Fold this protein.
Amino acid sequence: MSEQLSPDERARERYQRDTDEHEMTVIRDDGVYRHLRFQKPGTWNYGYDLVTWPGYLAITGDAGEYMFHRIQDMFEFFGGHGDRINAHYWSEKLCDPGRDMARVYSEDVLREHVEQWLEDIDRADDAVLAAAVKRDVVAHAYSEHEAREALANFRHDDGTTIDSWEWDLREYDSRFLWCCWAILRGIARYQALVPAQALSAEAV
């Protein structure tokens, strides 16, 4: 079931489903200067481009836009990982403002922190405290600002407060994870189907 999959795995499944009929077009292939296009013929739904130049790779398209900077040939940076992405490491190579766009506030992450906090203070079985946190914090945490404010203001009847200043309430955005898979799979397709010499633009 998809509900049991990790965010990375859910993004992989979604990418496979969204791009099942995509074809690759090589628009430019000149050393580290490359421009590849992936799309279903006749539509741009979930279509995307991969563009590289010395030290950079950019992905643009229907699912989002991100630019990375690390080594001379960015296909080498993203390649060699097998069929897995490394969202944490790759996000560190994003050019601004991409770093701020790669992660988003998550109510699920907030709930996980709350559950772990209850365990850490040996109150996991305290239904009254758990209900109070759910009522006074989780129920009002529609944004990170609201969550932080509710956490800071929480005080249970017995005086219990929540020390949450170290909590990271964000997770990787599903669009960013989708684009990570698009980069990985796009590079693999290019390396498998395109010969070493430069090609004129054609669908393969």
Notes: The first strand starts at residue 23 and ends at 30.
